[in-house]
Amino acid sequence: MSMRKNDLVSGMWTYITELCERGHHSTAKSYQDALNSFKRFSGREEIPYTYINKENLLFYQNYLEKRGCARNTVSTYMRRLRCMYNRAVDAGEAPYIPHLFKGVFTGVESKRKKALSLEKLHVLMMTPVEDIKMRKTQGVLCLMFLFCGMAFVDLAHLKKENIKNGLLAYYRQKTGASIQVEIPVEALSLLESLAEDITSGSPFLLPFLSGTKSGEAAYREYTSALSRFNRNLKSLAKILGITCPVTSYSIRHSFATTLKEQDVSIEMISELLGHKSIKTTQIYLKSFSLEKISAVNKACFERLYNYVPKVG
Description:
- The structure is a single chain.
- Helix 2 (about 25-40) packs across helix 4 (about 70-90), helix 6 crosses helix 9 (about 215-240) and helix 11 (about 265-275) packs across helix 12.
- This protein has 13 helices and 3 strands.
- A 3-stranded antiparallel β-sheet has the order 1-2-3, with no helix packed on it.
- The N and C termini lie far apart (about 85 Å).
- With about 300 residues, the protein is mostly helical.
């Protein structure tokens, strides 16, 4: 593809190539998805930056909503377009328009249903199952919980060298944050059981990745492992009678929410999750459970109802 100045498609492809060269394949895919969507909306193969104006952005948001896109998907696409537009402004390829993206949704919408209740978590993690694959799936999600709500991407990329003197130390794949966790006794037998399936010569601690691929091939191997794990989680939930959606992400979110409802400080939760900003943690924890809200509300009323003024 020949690179054209003042054109969103060329500019975004250049940036996508840069991201892939730096190994950021997941982010690159996000930009590619946004580009493909905006091309479908515009009906163009070439999109001059002048096409991106307030009116067209509002039309695009309406187009996405009519197609059933989630609010967070709308936000992601808009933020990808905003980033590219700002890069073009800095390069002198697009005109500066104050508050160009002000009228469209670029925030994050938190959904209460992502976190599982303690009851469902207990059933999911502790109920004995006969199928070997399901037992190993249980073992993986237990490890994610035991390792402070570890993200699946970090679990899959753990290497044997990350364990030393009873500690697990690693850098988060997403943010680069340094994490150090004392390995609980309960995790040792799980690690030993899962290690039986590791490919010979693999540097990884768990049997998700082969260690023989690099670049985009390694990213594809990881996404396949994630999809496989989520399918197994769905099967496990079905076997155990859990009807709400269960994914690798909901395990991490449930860990954070469980701590919140035990009155653990948001600063501590943020550090345990390896977030760079407490704002990210606040998105995770935007809503308490209905049970918690009801209990606090009831306690507040009872305190008022039973109040006895001090005499003297």
